[in-house]
Amino acid sequence: MTHLVICWLDEAIKEDEIEMVIDETRKLSSIPGVQDFSVGKPVQSDRAVVDDSFTFAIAMRFRSQKEMESYLTHDLHVGYVNEILKPRASKITVYDF
Asked: How many structural domains compose the chain?
């Protein structure tokens, strides 16, 4: 199971704060059940099909939906979302597959 999160931060957020958010995001990889974890900024592209408008994206894999659901309720994840991400985000889109 893959959990993909696309994040757009408020335009007023400066680069050093973006880097802090990304550094805090990396800590989520320590939550039990996370198999693979990646976070990064978009690759700029001239291709019309590429949406490079987001600030950063997170991709992670789990063995099962149950493990993903456990991750979503973990204190570290909940704290990150409520204290780090949501206060700075203008848009968040999630794809689970």
From this structure: 1
Closest CA to 56 of 90, 95, 10, 5: 5
Task: List helix spans (H) across 1-97.
Answer: 15-26, 65-73, 75-79
Q: In which residue are the tokens 């592209």 written?
A: 45
Report CA dihedral (25, 52, 4, 72) to the nearest 10 degrees.
40
φ, ψ (nearest 5 deg) of residue 14? -85, 165
Instruction: Give the tens place of pLDDT for each residue, 2-54.
Output: 999 999 999 999 999 999 999 999 999 999 999 999 999 999 999 999 999 99
Q: Residue 72 belongs to what domain range?
A: 2-96
